[in-house]
Task: inverse folding
């Protein structure tokens, strides 16, 4: 219990208020429903609660207990100790949104740094203070494009190689509007590259969304797609994996108008799916169309450089029903984690991590492709994730390998009919050469029956 | 509160100056005062565009508020004020002069009859200030 | 003293954290796709740690002092929550792991669903929405889906009181619904006439925050809900103010059809400087099938005599509105809220609401002689005062707020709700002691005196903080949103 009042405190306060009993403060609540008995377990002390939670935590096998080759939108990367040390400072995590800038410069300057780092990483001109995750960031990009054209361009084209959860989220978000989502309903073979989307773009298209790397781990040059989109008057959004950008050309250089992404790989634990971090960056010309919080630089009345939430007139608390988006929260503490992570790694460290992912993944892919019964599904270049065509259904492969304490990857059959034998395998800097030995041995066993 | 007698007004704080068949539109002194320091103006209407009464023709933003500017009457856009985006603060300093937003050829002059005159608009402002 | 930006203290060649060389042969890099430059700073670990530590010292937080932001519920964030969420058995779970390997995590999610159902008086809960506004979007989409499933496509109006938080109308507009504002009456309740006028067959629903943003429990809440139901609409409860209701009343019992919970307000998960939050949604029985995908269910019942626990799994509701984000929800915040509820039990939860409401009414009593209270009724967990006095018209709520910072108090919410002039919305929460409340009341009274005797000290406040008032006009006109090193400017 965290309220400090003693009985004496309560009595004195009731006297000042002028009532005899605290129950009198609830007379506006309909009597028939007042003071219900809640059927909840009795309270535990901190010591007992922790023991219970440790028991529940112990009932799980984690991505560190097992050998992890599972990716598909969330990745097992190393998190330097200093990240959490900063996150655990009460001045950061018990603060609110920095609406009173005079006593929030810690949060504000940190977000400004975050915006700068993400803009630089993605090759764009401006980043916001983040969205909830990679999926909702794409949904906000769709929203932004839709508003930019004032609803006059209803079509949005989603690459079938964009994460299935992201595409579903876009559909949920656009259900109440005139947006028509296409591109992932069989018009285009998921095995094809992004240029296969070009014939679908027309003058009713507001936004084309592709992923880089895509859901299957593949990487492409998106320049032709960007040109085709712009020629039709449409915008292009690219959803990205930030670790890859430590090595690869940033989407800004292809001509993307919006770059979104999932920031979890940047110092944020897997945590069974959340909280994560939605990256969102765009060009300066669209800055007022962008939803989400923005920190800008200014001065205070003592001449000090300082930071403040700006362009707030776009947001829901002012525009209300005319706001582009209802978003209020950003992922404050997660953006801080990403900022600290990127600062600790720096220009050389992020490149190092990206190269480790790249080389280890390519080595693993070569070894798996050499096993009898297994082959790579695509010969396109990839970053750290690739699809293996297995001799048996991928679900059977993952079940079998789990018995050897290996999370083999993500079976694609449920999301992509026809790819039931295909397994999406991810490799990060956390995977050792020895783990590839175990993986290959176990895969061979499955192949041999 | 400056409310020129020769203009007509809307409930949404736009003014229109009518000269022959041409209308000039902006936002009122009351509006700029409510918004406080204007930091951004975007004129959405384009020259040659046909717009209806009630269509949004511009957006005005301050630090604490954002407002759409709506067409008081229907017409075809003749001119838009290109100086405004670079100097949004003139909305505060000269709302009825240099801060005009669009000029249009009025298509249906009878729509002017349903607008407020200076006295009616002043009454509306007084009521809101209570 | 302003802190330099990292791009200004970066030194080429410095690196905070290093990684090993690859233990595998290198492969050729992809042609034409390798980036030439990576504009990240180069700092030693000590530089990074000192920089962020010093930045943190410029912040106010609940761990430092009173933070009475109305409707934000800035209560103490228990440290045990942080321990719990960081247990490796939770923090290192990949969201797509087979259910068999994460039964402990699923058990926690299932239990929290059940507990939130019990607390809210609802039949189904989804933990997927990432924040309050996200929960609102989910709820309004559920309402929309419900009506359409019954062929009722005419129902597109959402009624929203004029005191509502901006996310309510923004959410409704995002969902393709038509927003209609309804008035509050002189006592701060929903004006029943204003409501009745819109109860027709185009009504989809009403979004109601109760207690509302004035901190008042609607005296006619049952009639309000009855009117909406009679017209065929549904009622959405914005749970931002649930801190006043724990163990006092269950919104579901009053007739709310959908509601969202804010784990980062009522259930003590930390605000993090602006997030992450978590906004689970609860629904009445007729809406359970529409919840977002997935929820946690029991696939195989427990076998008590064999001591076999239930088998939990992820389930797709039959008429789901679909996903509202990737993966399952903010599991890290779910663990914290679970811990919090587990430590309180039913009596503890009720004590939270009682003490929150007690604290607010105590402060109200102490301030009522000095500040005008526009709706002078018993309040719930928060109340609104006017930050102005007729005899000193040049002093505004903003000035009072800035002066409070000189006394190490975070100001209350100001300029909201919109229906009160120069509003100051004060929510003390239950975790503040009588001493803190007295100190705050005395400071507010002192500031009222300063408004008359020395108004300049208010208008130029704050004085004792690391930074003074900022030029927000400059920030909006000269947009600088990214680091440009001083030597380039």
Result:
């Amino acid at each position: 219990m965290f309220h400090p009042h003693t009985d004496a405190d309560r009595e004195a306060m009731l006297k000042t208020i002028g009532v005899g009993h605290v129950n009198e403060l609830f007379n506006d609540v309909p009597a028939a429903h007042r003071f219900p008995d809640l059927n909840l377990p009795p309270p535990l002390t901190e010591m007992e609660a922790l023991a219970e939670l440790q028991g529940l935590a112990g009932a799980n096998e984690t991505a560190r207990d097992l050998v992890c080759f599972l990716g598909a939108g969330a990745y097992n990367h190393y998190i330097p100790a200093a990240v959490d040390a900063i996150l655990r400072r009460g001045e950061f995590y018990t603060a609110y949104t920095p609406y009173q800038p005079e006593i929030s410069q810690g949060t504000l300057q940190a977000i400004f740094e975050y915006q700068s780092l993400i803009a630089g990483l993605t090759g764009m001109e401006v980043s916001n203070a983040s969205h909830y995750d990679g999926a909702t960031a794409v949904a906000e990009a769709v929203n932004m494009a839709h508003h930019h054209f004032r609803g006059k361009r209803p079509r949005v084209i989603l690459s079938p190689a964009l994460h299935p959860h992201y595409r579903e989220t876009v559909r949920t978000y656009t259900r109440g509007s005139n947006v028509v989502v296409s591109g992932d309903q069989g018009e285009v073979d998921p095995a094809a590259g992004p240029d296969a989307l070009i014939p679908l773009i027309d003058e009713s298209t507001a936004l084309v969304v592709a992923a880089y790397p895509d859901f299957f781990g593949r990487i492409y040059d998106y320049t032709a797609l960007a040109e085709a989109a712009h020629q039709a008057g449409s915008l292009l959004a690219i959803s990205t994996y930030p670790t890859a950008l430590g090595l690869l050309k940033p989407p800004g250089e292809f001509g993307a108008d919006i770059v979104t992404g999932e920031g979890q790989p940047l110092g944020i634990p897997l945590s069974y799916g959340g909280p994560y971090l939605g990256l969102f960056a765009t060009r300066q010309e669209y800055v007022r169309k962008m939803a989400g919080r923005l920190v800008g630089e200014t001065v205070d009345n003592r001449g000090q450089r300082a930071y403040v939430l700006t362009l707030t007139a776009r947001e829901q608390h002012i525009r209300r029903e005319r706001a582009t988006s209802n978003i209020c929260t950003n992922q404050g503490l997660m953006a801080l984690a990403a900022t600290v992570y990127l600062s600790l790694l720096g220009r050389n460290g992020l490149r190092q991590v990206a190269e480790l992912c790249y080389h280890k993944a390519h080595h693993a892919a070569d070894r798996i492709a050499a096993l009898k019964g297994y082959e790579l599904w695509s010969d396109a270049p990839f970053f750290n994730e690739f699809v293996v065509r297995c001799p048996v259904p991928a679900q059977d492969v993952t079940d079998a390998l789990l018995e050897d304490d290996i999370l083999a990857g993500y079976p694609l059959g449920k999301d992509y009919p026809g790819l039931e034998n295909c397994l999406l395998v991810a490799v990060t800097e956390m995977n050792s050469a020895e783990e590839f030995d175990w993986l290959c041995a176990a895969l061979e066993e499955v192949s041999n029956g | 509160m400056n409310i020129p007698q020769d203009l007509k007004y809307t409930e949404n704080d736009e003014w229109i100056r009518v000269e022959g068949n041409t209308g000039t539109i902006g936002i009122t002194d009351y509006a700029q005062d409510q918004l406080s320091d204007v930091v951004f103006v975007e004129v959405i209407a384009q020259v040659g565009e046909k717009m209806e009464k009630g269509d949004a023709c511009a957006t005005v933003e301050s630090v604490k508020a954002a407002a759409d500017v709506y067409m008081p009457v229907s017409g075809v856009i003749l001119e838009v004020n290109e100086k405004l985006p670079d100097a949004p603060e003139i909305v505060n300093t000269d709302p009825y002069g240099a801060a005009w937003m669009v000029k249009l050829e009025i298509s249906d002059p009878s729509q002017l009859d349903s607008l407020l005159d200076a006295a009616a608009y002043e009454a509306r402002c007084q009521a809101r200030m209570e | 003293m302003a802190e330099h930006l990292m791009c200004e203290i970066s030194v080429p060649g410095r690196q905070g954290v290093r990684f090993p060389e690859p233990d595998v042969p290198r492969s050729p890099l992809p042609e034409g796709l390798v980036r030439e430059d990576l504009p990240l700073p180069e700092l030693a670990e000590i530089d990074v740690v000192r920089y962020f530590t010093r930045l943190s010292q410029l912040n106010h937080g609940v761990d430092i002092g009173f933070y009475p932001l109305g409707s934000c519920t800035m209560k103490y964030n228990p440290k045990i929550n942080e321990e719990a969420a960081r247990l490796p058995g939770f923090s290192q779970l990949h969201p797509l792991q087979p259910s068999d390997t994460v039964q402990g995590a699923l058990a926690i999610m299932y239990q929290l669903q059940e507990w939130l159902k019990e607390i809210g008086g609802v039949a189904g809960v989804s933990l997927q929405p990432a924040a309050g506004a996200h929960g609102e979007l989910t709820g309004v989409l559920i309402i929309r889906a419900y009506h359409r499933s019954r062929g009722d496509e005419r129902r597109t109006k959402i009624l929203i009181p004029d005191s509502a938080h901006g996310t309510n109308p923004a959410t409704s507009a995002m969902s393709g619904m038509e927003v209609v504002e309804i008035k509050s009456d002189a006592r701060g309740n929903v004006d029943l006439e204003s409501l009745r006028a819109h109860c027709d067959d185009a009504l989809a629903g009403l979004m109601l925050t109760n207690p509302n943003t004035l901190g008042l429990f609607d005296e006619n809440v049952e009639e309000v809900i009855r009117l909406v139901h009679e017209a065929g609409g549904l009622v959405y409860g914005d749970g931002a103010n649930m801190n006043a209701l724990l163990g006092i009343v269950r919104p579901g019992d009053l007739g709310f059809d959908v509601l969202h919970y804010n784990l980062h307000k009522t259930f003590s998960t930390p605000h993090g400087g602006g997030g992450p939050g978590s906004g689970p949604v609860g629904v009445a029985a007729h809406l359970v099938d529409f919840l977002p995908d997935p929820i946690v269910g029991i696939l195989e019942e427990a076998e008590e005599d064999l001591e076999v626990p239930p088998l939990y799994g992820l389930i797709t509701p039959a008429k789901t509105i679909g996903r509202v984000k990737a993966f399952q929800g903010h599991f890290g915040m779910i663990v914290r809220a679970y811990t919090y509820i587990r430590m309180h039990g039913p009596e503890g939860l009720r004590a939270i609401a009682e003490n929150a409401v007690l604290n607010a009414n105590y402060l109200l009593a102490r301030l009522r002689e000095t500040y005008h209270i526009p709706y002078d009724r018993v309040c719930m967990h928060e109340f609104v005062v006017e930050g102005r006095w007729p005899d000193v018209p040049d002093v505004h709520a903003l000035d009072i707020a800035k002066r409070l910072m000189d006394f190490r108090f975070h100001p209350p919410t100001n300029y909201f709700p919109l229906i009160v002039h120069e509003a100051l919305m004060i929510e003390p929460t239950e975790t503040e002691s009588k001493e803190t409340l007295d100190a705050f009341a005395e400071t507010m009274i002192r500031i009222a005196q300063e408004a008359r005797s020395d108004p300049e000290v208010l208008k130029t406040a704050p004085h004792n903080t690391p930074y003074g008032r900022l030029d927000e006009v400059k920030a909006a006109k000269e947009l600088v949103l990214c680091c440009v090193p001083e030597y380039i400017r």
Notes: Chain A has two domains: 67-78+346-447, 81-341. Chain A has a mean pLDDT of 95. Chain A touches chain B at residues 288, 311-314, 318-319, 322 (CB under 8 Å).
